[in-house]
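Please predict the structure of the following assembly.
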Amino acid sequence: MIEVRDLDFSRGSRPIFKNLNLTIAHGDITAIMGPSGTGKTTLLRLIARQLEPDRGQILIDGVDIATLSQSALYELRKRFGMLFQNGALLTDMSVFENVAFPLREHTPLGERLIRMIVLTKLHAVGLRGAAELMPAELSGGMARRVALARAIVMDPDILFYDEPFVGLDPISMGVIARLIRRLNDTLGISSIVVSHDIKELAEVSDHSFLIADGCVAASGSPDDLKKDSSEMVKQFMHGLADGPVAFHYDAPDYEKQLIGEAE
Amino acid sequence: MRLIREIVRPAQEFVRTFGAMTLFFVQLLRHTPWTLAKRFNLVIGQVFNAGALSIVIIMVSGLFVGGVLGLQAFANLERFNAEEATGILAGFALVKEIGPVITALLFAGRAGTALASEIGLMKATDQLSAMEMMAVNPMHRVLVPRFLGGVISMPLLTAVFTMVGLLGAHLVAVELMGVDVGAYWQQLQQSMDIDDVMEGIYKSIVFGVVASLLAVWEGYSAVPTAEGVGRATTRTVVSTAIAVLILDFMITAYLI
């Protein structure tokens, strides 16, 4: 179980989270949603302690991660898998070596066993045939699928997905969505998915948090969020331009700026 | 008031950066024994990248720098009928000064920029973050092997540069200008002792540490954008060149 308690975090003078509280249950697929720039990816990095909060606690299975030494933190991270938004594949290694990387780093497994595990994971994401390609030879969607194979190669307890559906074609999107569900249920792990893709998230997630203005604006099952009556939730869930979340960045009056009366 | 602010702010920034770089250097040293023990193959790989792949540029430069030294030494010593001392002049210049300094400058241009841009791009594309998430310390996997690869390569490259430079000076002075081959080598051998050679070796070790540290630091602290990586690469060359020239003066002044 992951608990975020009274979390404050800011970048420079810009506050990202103000008194954020949420609990992610074990075994669930939890969706973190919210408008761009609300700090969804930042939240993942805080949970993995790649960033330090200004205030508050993050507890994983009851342990405050801020109290962990570096070696204890690295031990904890062995239980994590993370799919980065851009894949973050190591560019000097082939697809096969990228997926094998955590196994070579953390296990004494022999070459035959590593090969078998890597091919199994690559097969799961449909890229067994691309094992010998280099990252530069992959499309964005393929790179993300390889990154997913790498994220699951150590059979983690907690899987973080940062925008797993961006840039994928509809077939890959469906496959990845089903894979997220299957991995979660078969391995009995917890999955945290950061995404804008409401339709796909509604199909796979058990619980959702909608984050806005630095705190949880709404939470519940995908159906609960769809039925939520607040203006902000309705605007986000139905993709409306008008509502409490401004589409336009702060700017002077449009007409005045066009005719040169404003900067 | 504004003038004072404009002076104080860059000074503060310099002190802050220097402090952060010093702490980074301590971190590199702290992780060095573990990396040498457990990741020696990565260090060897980086000696190949920083050292072996720089050999051609080092040899070509050494040959021509040696040739120019031979020409200048011969032309000027001939005025005093001392052209047989060409070997001494070219040899001392190469072993004590030009060899270590030009090798360090070439290293900054060839290997230093490659190191800084590679690490900067790894940071910009989240590869370092991905390693951390996979419980792999980038210090062990990326930074220390590259730093050590540079430190080990520099004295070796300096030795190659100096030897090829002496050969270049020999080709010009002996083969082209007709200086006696025996006089060229014998005078050089007789007048140079081990302290002179050690001066060049000390310098090459110090330059190796400084050039590698600056390259790895600039890459690691780069702003993770295309522009940031470009700036880090440029800064690597500029700061290494300045640091090497200042340190060269300081070491020479200390050893003389």
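Chain A touches chain B at residues 45, 48, 50, 74-75, 77-78, 80, 82, 84-86, 88-91, 101-102, 105-106, 147, 150 (CB under 8 Å). Residues 170-187 of chain A form the longest helix (18 residues).
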